[in-house]
């Protein structure tokens, strides 16, 4: 999500369930970067590519139950980690893999398709 310190070039991790400020997913292995002149240096050591579309790995938790391929995912209260969406609100991705961890505090990674949107489960 965008930083709230006046720096419109910075982003920070989400920290709340269904956080509306989510804009994408940090990518550790981007296929294409549109602002390819951006690079880390001593003045900007924390520059990360943000996936706005496409397939990327996403940190997930089973806090809202097991994740099945095709499930919609949203932000969780664990900073920078997603969970299964089960009520209306902000969606950040669609799961492309299952995640069946029984420990809800454990964090895993699955492949997802970035889908930043709003979903109302009552209308489907």
Overall strand count? 7
Please estimate the helix content. Answer: under 10%
Oligomeric category: single chain
Query: Topology as H/E string?
Result: EEEEEEE
Uncertain stretches: none
Strand order of the largest sheet: 3-7-6-4-5
Structural class of the secondary structure composition? mainly beta
Distance between the termini: 27 Å
> What form results from the Cα inertia axes?
globular
Mean pLDDT: 85
**Rg, alpha carbons:** 15 Å
User: What can be said about the biggest beta sheet?
Assistant: 5 strands, antiparallel
Determine the strand fraction and express it as a percent band.
25-35%
Write the layout of secondary structure elements.
Blueprint: E1 25-26, E2 50-51, E3 55-60, E4 72-75, E5 82-84, E6 89-95, E7 108-119
Antiparallel strand pairs: 1-2, 3-7, 4-5, 4-6, 6-7
């Amino acid at each position: 999500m965008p930083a709230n310190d006046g720096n419109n070039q910075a982003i920070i991790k989400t920290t709340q369930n269904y956080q509306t400020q989510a804009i994408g997913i940090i990518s550790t292995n981007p296929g294409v970067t549109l602002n390819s002149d951006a690079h880390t240096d001593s003045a900007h050591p924390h520059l990360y590519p943000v996936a706005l579309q496409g397939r990327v790995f996403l940190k997930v938790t089973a806090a809202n139950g097991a994740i099945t391929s095709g499930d919609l995912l949203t932000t969780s209260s664990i900073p920078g980690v997603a969970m299964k969406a089960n009520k209306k609100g902000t969606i950040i991705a669609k799961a492309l893999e299952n995640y069946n961890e029984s420990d809800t505090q454990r964090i895993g990674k699955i492949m997802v398709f970035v889908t930043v949107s709003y979903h109302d489960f009552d209308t489907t």
